[in-house]
Design goal:
Elements (H helix, E strand, L loop, with lengths): L2 E5 L3 H12 L6 E6 L3 E3 L4 H6 L4 H4 E3 H7 L3 E4 L2 E5 L4 E4 L4 E3 L2 E4 L4 E2 L6 H4 L9 H10 L3 E4 L3 H16 L7 E4 L10 H13 L3 E3 L4 E4 L3 E4 L3 E3 L2 E4 L3 E2 L2 H4 L11 E3 L11 E3 L4 E3 L9 H6 L1 H13 L14 E6 L2 E6 L2 E5 H19 L1
Parallel strand pairs: 1-2, 1-9, 2-5, 9-20, 11-12, 11-17, 12-13, 19-21
Antiparallel strand pairs: 3-4, 6-7, 7-8, 10-18, 14-15, 15-16, 22-23, 23-24
Helix pairs in contact: 1-11
The chain binds flavin-adenine dinucleotide (FAD).
The site of flavin-adenine dinucleotide (FAD) has 36 residues, from helix 1, strand 2, helix 7 and helix 10.
């Protein structure tokens, strides 16, 4: 059989590598191309920012991981995919031939307002995380733009870290164009608002960011000053996907069937934030679904190579989400149910630790 090339060290591709090694496909070669030596686990970003986890706990060394799982590792950014000649072209100019491709490169952040792309801090790709932590921990005033789970969680963790280090936390602001924690149950939103109040963090809702300079975010209603401004305003497709000559979703993501296969190029499969499943266009882009897509991705890439019928991915309707709110407390939500306190954080800590363990052994 042929060459499998995995582009991006995201959740589904790492799970692919584990299974590929377990099943000992001696007639196929497998190569991982990823832009950095490390893959950071976003579920533990908040704990690292707060000072609970070490660097070793939150990241996977892809070079060692590939070596241990008998996969070739190319530590370089994929710049382009030549679909006609079936090659991945990386920044060094090297061309990597493939018979089938699995793309799992994550997403970038919607930073399309003037100034944001040039001046804002970004966590995408995720190996920028350490630089961002340094900047936001030590900046006297930090603004986070984006009121989703990631922005809220990082704000609470930053606040907790600053309290532990006896730094003033009065100048922290979270800005969102809609409601904080939008789409979640009313109880959860109210709980989050009360926590912002209790911790004396500025929460600005219903103000759309319209422009950004090095130190200011201008909204439709005012202006906010910060030395560090972190942009977490929803996902957009990364350049590699933008430049692919394939059918895309409305937002520009790689459009795949429920078999995780591009609807227009059968040699390209994908999973995680960089894809949209045609039959489930509103599936949230998060780590939960990236991990859930891993099985079908692996099965179907191998079935495709053997000319077999592909397997269907059916997403679960609800999933457990736990957001860290600082000082080892968390907010657990499951559909309309939610609960806040120490136990949710302990559950999250256990789930995240177990997930990382599966990638370590
Ligand atoms: C602060 C924060 C907290 C979050 N917490 C959670 C949570 O608790 N639970 C949850 O479900 N989701 C969470 N998310 C969302 C989650 O991070 C993403 O949805 C998830 O990481 C997407 O996984 P992925 O496998 O698609 O890609 P990623 O995990 O983003 O991995 C993509 C990989 O591709 C590599 N790459 C990118 N471009 C290229 C290229 N051109 N060439 C080669 N390699 C490339 C990157 O280096 C990286 O290794 C959080 C996000 C943030 C920002």
């Amino acid at each position: 059989m042929g060459d499998i090339v995995l582009v991006g060290g995201g959740h589904a591709n790492l799970s692919f590598i584990k299974k590929h090694n377990q099943d000992r496909h001696e007639d196929t070669s497998c190569t991982l191309v990823s832009a950095d030596r490390y893959q950071y686990y976003s579920g533990m970003f908040s704990g690292f920012l707060e000072g609970i986890y070490s660097l070793k706990q939150i990241r996977i060394d892809l070079q060692d991981f590939c070596k241990d799982h008998n996969v070739r590792f190319v530590c370089d950014k994929a710049d382009r995919i030549d679909q006609v000649n079936k090659r991945v072209i990386v920044s060094s100019g090297q061309e990597i031939p493939y018979e089938v491709l699995s793309v799992n490169v994550g997403s970038h952040v919607q930073d399309d307002i003037p100034g944001a792309h040039d001046h804002a801090l970004s966590l995408k790709p995720n190996f920028h995380f350490l630089e961002v932590v340094e900047r936001i921990r030590h900046s006297p005033r930090t603004i986070i733009v984006g009121g989703g789970a990631a922005g809220v969680e990082l704000m609470f963790s930053l606040h907790a870290w600053r309290e532990k280090n006896e730094l003033n936390s009065k100048e922290l602001t979270l800005l969102t164009g809609g409601e904080v924690f939008e789409g979640e149950a009313e109880f959860a939103k109210q709980k989050i608002r009360r926590l912002f109040q209790k911790k004396q963090i500025n929460l600005v809702e219903h103000e759309r960011a319209e422009e950004m300079t090095t130190r200011f975010v201008k909204t439709n209603n005012g202006e906010y000053e910060g030395e560090a401004i972190l942009w977490l305003a929803g996902p957009k497709p990364p350049p590699l996907i933008r430049d692919l000559d394939v059918k895309k979703s409305e937002g520009g993501f790689l459009l795949v069937t429920d078999r995780m296969q591009s609807v227009s190029d059968p040699a390209i499969f994908g999973a995680g934030d960089c894809i949209t499943v045609q039959s489930y266009p509103h599936l949230p882009k998060n780590g939960v679904y990236a991990i859930r897509q891993a099985n079908e991705l692996y099965e179907n890439v191998n079935r495709y190579l053997k000319g077999e019928t592909l397997k269907t991915f059916t997403p679960q309707k609800r999933y457990l989400a736990i957001l860290s709110t600082g000082h080892r407390e968390g907010l657990l939500t499951y559909g309309k149910f939610s609960i806040h306190g120490k136990i949710p954080w302990l559950v999250k800590n256990r789930i995240d630790g177990s997930f990382m363990k599966t990638l370590r052994c």
